[in-house]
Amino acid sequence: MIDSHCHLAGDEFAADLKDVIARAKAAGLASAIVILAAQDEAEIARWQTVRALWPEARAAVGVHPHQAGAFAAEPEGAARLLASRLDSVPDVRAVGEIGLDYHYDFSPRDVQQAVFRAQLRVARERGLPVVIHTREAEADTLAILGEHVATAGVFHCFSGDTAAAARALATGFYISIPGIVSFPKAGELREAVKTIPLERLLIETDSPYLAPVPYRGKRNEPAYVARVAEVVAEARGMTTAAVAAAVLENARRLFRL
Q: Of 20, 78, 147, 184, which residue is most buried, by most CB within 10 angstroms?
């Protein structure tokens, strides 16, 4: 299987990265997509260490909407930074995570939108899929994606209901399910999981965040995506092995692994 979204190059894993990767491999992970913040020099540098310890891992790089405000004066600066990272950072397979976040509003919404559009243009020019972060911003996210119909991608950390899943699927994108699916109150998400075509399904940890039950409250890590696979399999009436195989094949197709 694969963890389609983790922050393994973050400083949360710096002290025990080798052990974290060993546990991921022991849990049956063939690879992971490691998310890199385009403006974080330390994280970009740590990606080299991740690659050395886990050669099969691949990366995505982008400016998160939380950091979009740094480009308020010139949103195209985000596009230039992204392009430079794509030229210099090895083994990048996607642009992301990018998008809109109206929950925290750490950056002005108009700036988030401009930075989002600028990065989508780069992704389209480079022929790369996008990893979408959207929180309390679904309508604007879908509208902006509608302007960039040639771009493929995935809605990461999906936690919506069946209707939201249908709207996401209408874009042609994949949907990635996080550990939230294991939470006791996530019944609507488990119902939505049943409706996602198997060929459009991915799973993720978003580690170090959102550890699934029974690890909730602890630091999340890629190995725990196995638990996500178990819950998704139970919701869909499938075997865990079948889910694991399907999401790996889907990731290989989307990210050209």
A: 78
Where does the chain have alpha helices with state H? 17-26, 41-53, 76-88, 109-126, 138-146, 162-169, 187-195, 225-236, 240-255
CA–CA separation, 169 vs 157, rounded Å?
Answer: 14
85 and 35 in contact (C-beta within 8 Å)? Answer: no
Domains of the chain: 2-255 (3.20.20.140)
Closest residue by Cα to residue 77 from 61, 60, 63: 63
What burial class does residue 214 get, using C-beta atoms within 10 Å of its C-beta: 0-12 exposed, 13-18 middle, 19+ buried?
exposed
CB atoms within 10 A of CB 47: 20
| Separation of alpha carbons 252 and 257, rounded Å | 5
How far apart are the C-alpha atoms of 29 and 166, rounded to whole Å?
A: 29
* CA–CA distance, 86 with 89 (Å, rounded to integer): 6
pTM summary value: 0.97
Q: How long a stretch of residues is the chain?
A: 257
Q: Give the number of other Cβ atoms within 10 Å of residue 179's Cβ.
A: 26
> Residue 208, preceding bond cis, omega within 30 degrees?
yes
For the stretch 11-28, what's the b/e string if a residue is b when 16 or more beta carbons lie within 10 angstroms of its beta carbon? Answer: ebbeeebeebbeebeebb
Segment 16-41, tens digit of pLDDT: 999 999 999 999 999 999 999 999 99
Q: Quick: pLDDT tens for 100-122.
A: 999 999 999 999 999 999 999 99
Q: 134: which 2 tokens?
A: 């959207």
CA 166, distance to chain mean position in Å, is 19
Decide if 206 contacts 245 (C-beta within 8 A): no
Give the pLDDT confidence score for residue 43 in this predicted structure. 97
